[in-house]
Amino acid sequence: MTPRPVLWFATWTIAPHPDPDAEPITHAMQCATCGEKSLPFEDIEPAQLMALKHAGLTHHDVYREAITRPWRARPAEGAAR
């Protein structure tokens, strides 16, 4: 008898990572005109300050915020692994 692979499907859910040891949520700002970026910070204020300083020096006035948030995928309640 030849072994055959078995495939099964389960429903999964995804949500922000709830554990205290999860990596932190970080914020960074990027100039949409020239692409200059701030470092990632856990607090948004240093990233915003970089954007304001950059705007004052360059008159670039459009920025993007990049948020990095850890997420965790798990089998849905009642689903077998």
Automatic annotation (TrEMBL):
Q: InterPro entries recorded for this chain?
A: DUF7848
All copies of domain DUF7848, residue ranges: 1-77
Q: What is this protein called?
A: DUF7848 domain-containing protein
Tell me what organism the protein belongs to. Answer: Actinacidiphila oryziradicis
User: What does the record give as the organism's lineage?
Assistant: Bacteria, Bacillati, Actinomycetota, Actinomycetes, Kitasatosporales
